[in-house]
Amino acid sequence: MAIVVENVSKRFGSFQAVDQVNLEIKSGSLVALLGPSGSGKSTLLRLISGLEMPDSGNIWITGKNATHQNVQDREIGFVFQHYALFKHLTVRKNIAFGMEIRKMPKAKVKARVEELLKLVHLEGMGDRYPSQLSGGQRQRVALARALAVQPQVLLLDEPFGALDAKVRKDLRAWLRRLHDEVHVTTVFVTHDQEEAMEVADEIVVMNKGQVEQVGTPAEIYDNPTSAFVMSFIGPVNVLPSTSRIFQDGGFDSANPEIFLRPHDVIVETTSNGASAKARVTRVIHLGWEIQAELTLEDGQVVTAHLSRERFKELKLEPQQWVYVKPKDAKAFPLHYSI
């Protein structure tokens, strides 16, 4: 394992930021720490990096106990959300900075810088200053600088959070391709579920300072182990078990809330006897799919996602009556909170 976190806790005053976390991160993997604000994901990243010290527990990096090591001795590359580039240095000098501090031979530094400029697709921009680059280009410089010293672990704290949506999406794909080339163990913090699903090999879902679930994007989405995970990863309808849509679902009072993905809502224009009647209250065209907001006879609102083809077959219109039933719903006895 590249990183092992053993029973680590961290408190700031009365706030328990990280609470007895245990986690193993495989060598060469790309892992997302995902959760809402205040879930402990950034604090955990800072504990791994050495920017914060744990109150208890141990952190192992590539087989060595790094719990009390300083940042410099952990052989870690760190990329912040706001780049942290030196404004008075060129792109080339920014990338070379860490190597020059370590007094590496000039010829080796020069060769490494050119190699990294090519790797991050910034050839020909080495003599520019950060102010002459776009946000996406500045973040790529920050990544190149972190990789320059050939770290054992690369840590990214919401690296694309300051960028607009299109640039952020482009950089996600680029980061995935970059990781597949360099194979550095990478951990990145995000609160964006889509970003985590698109980029990571594994996702660590955090809530209230603890790890809720660890798994591949498919495992997290298809087999959530708690109501919190299902409600946080992807859109979901949360309905009482008494809802008419579940009349044949076999749910009881032990399952007060039922979770139903919008794409698991079956919509028909005729009743088959096991469906609930609903009125189409709104139709939203999302491009690749259609979102229909449906109001059941008891006033509960259900969101359904339909393919464009299915929407055309049904010919849905606002105020139209339809019949709905669940294809796959999940129940969790314990109450959840975000």
TrEMBL record:
<dbReference type="InterPro" id="IPR027417">
    <property type="entry name" value="P-loop_NTPase"/>
</dbReference>
<dbReference type="InterPro" id="IPR003593">
    <property type="entry name" value="AAA+_ATPase"/>
</dbReference>
<dbReference type="InterPro" id="IPR008995">
    <property type="entry name" value="Mo/tungstate-bd_C_term_dom"/>
</dbReference>
<dbReference type="Pfam" id="PF00005">
    <property type="entry name" value="ABC_tran"/>
</dbReference>
<dbReference type="InterPro" id="IPR005116">
    <property type="entry name" value="Transp-assoc_OB_typ1"/>
</dbReference>
<keyword id="KW-0547">Nucleotide-binding</keyword>
<dbReference type="Pfam" id="PF03459">
    <property type="entry name" value="TOBE"/>
</dbReference>
<dbReference type="InterPro" id="IPR050093">
    <property type="entry name" value="ABC_SmlMolc_Importer"/>
</dbReference>
<keyword id="KW-0067">ATP-binding</keyword>
<dbReference type="InterPro" id="IPR003439">
    <property type="entry name" value="ABC_transporter-like_ATP-bd"/>
</dbReference>
<dbReference type="GO" id="GO:0016887">
    <property type="term" value="F:ATP hydrolysis activity"/>
</dbReference>
<dbReference type="GO" id="GO:0015418">
    <property type="term" value="F:ABC-type quaternary ammonium compound transporting activity"/>
</dbReference>
<dbReference type="InterPro" id="IPR017871">
    <property type="entry name" value="ABC_transporter-like_CS"/>
</dbReference>
<keyword id="KW-1278">Translocase</keyword>
<feature type="domain" description="ABC transporter">
    <location>
        <begin position="3"/>
        <end position="233"/>
    </location>
</feature>
<keyword id="KW-0813">Transport</keyword>
<dbReference type="GO" id="GO:0043190">
    <property type="term" value="C:ATP-binding cassette (ABC) transporter complex"/>
</dbReference>
<keyword id="KW-0764">Sulfate transport</keyword>
<dbReference type="GO" id="GO:0015419">
    <property type="term" value="F:ABC-type sulfate transporter activity"/>
</dbReference>
<dbReference type="InterPro" id="IPR005666">
    <property type="entry name" value="Sulph_transpt1"/>
</dbReference>
<protein>
    <recommendedName>
        <fullName>ABC-type quaternary amine transporter</fullName>
        <ecNumber>7.6.2.9</ecNumber>
    </recommendedName>
</protein>
<dbReference type="GO" id="GO:0005524">
    <property type="term" value="F:ATP binding"/>
</dbReference>
